[in-house]
Each structure stands twice: as structure tokens, then as C-alpha cells.
Design goal:
84% helix, 6 helices
């Protein structure tokens, strides 16, 4: 591969990053292939430019990964909170959905240490709702037991 071919392929990877439709692993694979394909470029000035361009591209791919992960984290979190906050079903059903959402968010926090504190904070409202519904359930159960 010569420098002009590199430049063309470099621009294609940039377009993929900006389009936001490629996965992090796909983008990373493109950078790795591009790095391997440039081994034949020997002119010092071009070699320096290729190294600089590949370093910048790697940083952009990494930033894309972090940004996409954060978006996924918050999409998953907001979906879990929305499901848990639904007032459909019995009190026991609602408690079960809240438990599942708290577990999902806690697991997500474990996999995303940079967002852990914010994710765990997002469960506080769910925990309050859970506690309130538990009290309602106990009151319902007590009334049912008293009626028999």
C-alpha cells in the first residue's frame, strides 16, 4: 500500500466513525488492518504522517467506543427504570419488575466502573418505590389475613 491508498482507506474509516453505525470491534479491526497494510511505506516523511494518522484514528475509535458504551449504558438504564416504574399489574408484579431493574442496573454498573456511581444513584428512586410497595403489600396481606 502506498501513501495515497492509505489516505483513501483512512478517510473511509473516518467516515465509518462519524456515521456511528459500526461497532467498536469493527472499527478497531479496520485500524489494525490499516496499520498492517502500511508496513511497506518507507519514506520517512510519509511514515511519520502514517504513524500520526493511525494514532489519531486509534484515539477516535477509542473515544467512539467509550461514547457508544455510555449511550448504551444509559439506554439500558432508562429502559429498566421505565419498565420498573410501570403501574401495570399487581403490587407483587411491580415489586418483581423493580427488583429485576435494580439487578440489571447493578450488573451494568459492575461492567462500567466509570459510570458506577451515577448508575447506582439512578437506582435510589427505584429503591424508595420498592420500599413503599413492600409496605403496601404487607398491609394488603395483613388485611387479607384479618378478613379470614
Amino acid at each position: 500500500m502506498n501513501y495515497d491508498e492509505f489516505n483513501t482507506e483512512y478517510a473511509k474509516v473516518l467516515d465509518k466513525i462519524q456515521a456511528g453505525r459500526s461497532s467498536w470491534s469493527e472499527l478497531s479491526g479496520h485500524v489494525t488492518r490499516l496499520r498492517q497494510a502500511t508496513a511497506g511505506i518507507t519514506t520517512p516523511a510519509e511514515r511519520t504522517q502514517v504513524a500520526s494518522d493511525l494514532a489519531a484514528l486509534s484515539q477516535m475509535v477509542d473515544m467512539s467506543r467509550r461514547t457508544n458504551d455510555k449511550e448504551d449504558v444509559w439506554t439500558v438504564t432508562s429502559d429498566a427504570i421505565r419498565r420498573a416504574s410501570s403501574q401495570e399489574g399487581s403490587v407483587a408484579d411491580r415489586i418483581s419488575r423493580i427488583d429485576a431493574a435494580i439487578t440489571d442496573i447493578t450488573n451494568l454498573a459492575g461492567r462500567n466502573p466509570d459510570e458506577r456511581d451515577a448508575l447506582m444513584q439512578s437506582t435510589s428512586t427505584l429503591r424508595i418505590l420498592h420500599s413503599s410497595l413492600q409496605a403496601s403489600l404487607r398491609a394488603e396481606q395483613a388485611e387479607a389475613a384479618a378478613a379470614h
